[in-house]
Amino acid sequence: MKRQNVRTLSLVVCTFTYLLIGAAVFDALESKEEERRDGLLKVSSNALKRKYNISEEDYRMIELVIIEYKPHKAGPQWKFAGAFYFATVVLAMIGYGHSTPVTSGGKAFCIGYAVVGIPLGLVMFQSIGERLNKFASIVIRQIKKQLSCQKVEATEMNLMFATGMLSSIIITTGAAVFSRYEGWTYFDSFYYCFVTLTTIGFGDYVALQNDNALIERPGYVALSLVFILFGLAVVAASINLLVLRFMTMNAEEIRREDQDLQSSSHHVLTLDGDVMAVNGKLMTGQHGLIGEIDQTSVCSCNCLGLGHAGENEELLLDGGGNYHYHPSHPEVKVKRASV
Are 124 and 237 a contacting pair, CB within 8 Å? Predict the structure, then answer.
């Protein structure tokens, strides 16, 4: 099996193993808390129904009103500021789900907009990531020159370290900002920044959804958009390095296989013709008579080299009586040498 196939199979097995481990850990961490919260909500809902004498139908209507009203807490979601924020989320493939189009026209336009915008966004972020890597390599080279290092060129590890540090700075700084403006704990803000910049976008934490922020705080809206766009560009720079590393490994594997193939080609025999190459030696055959002939073995069992056909050999002749056939090696046809 080729090395590339082995690596692909190994990646598939490792990924599914990782999924199984993740499922087991999340089950252990979250399932009991889920059951506890579900029980508390049922107790609270039953208490409200008894206290205010609410019927089951009315209670469901209240639930629906609360769920539908939640996106409107931040003010109008589809004015220009909110629509621009939604378009950014679509382009970046974050998909919080905090607001969604409800009209058929809006849904149809969202599909077409995403079909064009997502590839455009990916190319843009990738291009910005390449420029950031180029800038980082220049900075690293200058730093190494100042430190009088023997090798001043930026290596892949240097670039990965630089983009990793920049990503960490962006996430930690963004967490501090969102913690202040949204009233979240720092850990929850850090969680939001990580989920956003990795485009997971669960939607359990979404910025700009309180106190009519989309209308009343344009500066905060701009800051949130800059965080998303610049943060995604930095993440794209890191991904660009990983992709390049994988492509380099793949190219090395292909080159190694080509070299192995070329080295083994010296042992390949050209058997169906007037010229036969055995280990680089050319042998020219000519028409001869059936009888005592000199033959050169090309089989691993050394079945040839006889002066005549043996008991386990069958001699098949073409029109000129030129070829020898061995039943255990049907693929081998040997041109008889000159008598």
Answer: no
Smallest Cα–Cα separation from 94: which of 126, 61, 121? Answer: 121
CB 85 within 8 A of CB 208: yes
CA angle, residues 12, 232, 164, in degrees to nearest 5: 70
Residue type, 319: G
Backbone dihedral angles phi then psi of residue 9, each to the nearest 5 degrees? -65, -40
Contacts of 60 (CB under 8 A, 6+ apart): none
Tokens for 192? 């939001």
* pLDDT per position as a tens digit, 76-103: 889 898 899 999 999 999 989 888 999 9
Q: What is the pLDDT of residues 18-57, one digit of tens each?
A: 999 999 999 999 999 999 999 999 999 999 999 999 999 9
Report d(CA 83, CA 263) in Å as an integer.
Answer: 62
104-146 vs 156-182: helix axis angle to the nearest 10? 130
